[in-house]
TrEMBL record:
Pfam families: HTH_18. Keywords: DNA-binding, Transcription, Transcription regulation. InterPro entries: AraC_XylS_family_regulators, Homeodomain-like_sf, HTH_AraC. This is Transcriptional regulator, AraC family. PROSITE patterns: HTH_ARAC_FAMILY_2 (PS01124). The keyword Transcription regulation applies. GO terms for molecular function: DNA-binding transcription factor activity; sequence-specific DNA binding. PANTHER family: HTH-TYPE DNA-BINDING TRANSCRIPTIONAL ACTIVATOR EUTR, HTH-TYPE TRANSCRIPTIONAL ACTIVATOR RHAS-RELATED. Regulatory protein of the TOL plasmid xyl operons. XylS activates the xylXYZLTEGFJQKIH operon required for the degradation of toluene, m-xylene and p-xylene. Residues 117-216 form the HTH araC/xylS-type domain. It comes from Pseudomonas lactis.
Length: 218
């Protein structure tokens, strides 16, 4: 989940993913939009439908291969042609994966977006604070059921899973930032009361034990 710009102009983000996680974005510039005759106002009611596992695998291989070829090209004409193909193909995927919402559904989606924005602001402003489900619902200003639906729509995981991932990331930050501590102390600071389960969950997310992280920071 993203954060917001800090006072010093740098971007603050609260990630709930492993450290080797990467995001790739394809941006449609205004000139491309104009050439395609797209009406931006009509895109307001669209949202991307999740790709199936098979579609996701095919899309990942296609995008990876295209970007690899694009990075290897040195000829400007060939690069421009492949860039145009990339944009055209992404537009085709967008056109086939989007779903048009009616007014009621669009309003609900906007409310869910604002809900998640409030959670994101809290996470960025208070990275070291913990919260339970009821407290998180209060932060978002919505009932617990609405909180759960918003998380399901925008993250694909439950708020309980998100809170657990956030605590694991908080523990990792603490392990990396100090040497005058122990794994047990850090685990308890982040409300992990069973050290063995904490270590297993930590290793599953970050591919190393918390003791190994602490050793690297010394």
């Amino acid at each position: 989940m993203g954060g917001k710009p800090a006072g010093n102009g740098e971007s603050r983000n609260t990630w709930i993913t492993p450290i080797n996680y990467r995001e790739v974005a394809v941006v449609f510039g205004p000139q491309f939009v104009q050439r395609q005759g797209l009406d931006i106002a009509k895109l307001e009611g669209l949202f991307m439908a999740p790709l199936t596992c098979r579609q996701n695998a095919l899309f990942t291989r296609w995008l990876s291969g295209t970007l690899t070829r694009l990075s290897a090209l040195t000829d400007p004409i060939s690069r421009d042609a492949l860039t145009q193909q990339l944009l055209d193909d992404c537009l085709f995927i967008l056109d086939n994966a989007c779903v048009c919402l009616d007014r009621s559904s669009l309003q609900k989606r906007s409310e869910e977006r604002r809900l998640m924005a409030r959670i994101g602001e809290w996470a960025a402003d208070a990275p070291d604070e913990t919260a339970n489900l009821l407290e998180l619902a209060q932060i978002a200003g919505v009932p617990l059921r609405q909180l759960q639906q918003g998380f399901k729509t925008y993250t694909g995981i439950s708020p309980a899973q998100w809170l657990r991932l956030r605590r694991l990331n908080g523990a990792r930050r603490e392990l990396l930032s100090t040497t005058d501590t122990t794994v047990a102390e850090v685990a308890m600071n982040w409300s992990f009361w069973h050290l063995g389960r904490f270590s297993n969950s930590y290793r599953a997310l970050f591919q190393e034990l918390p003791s190994e992280t602490l050793k690297r920071s010394s």
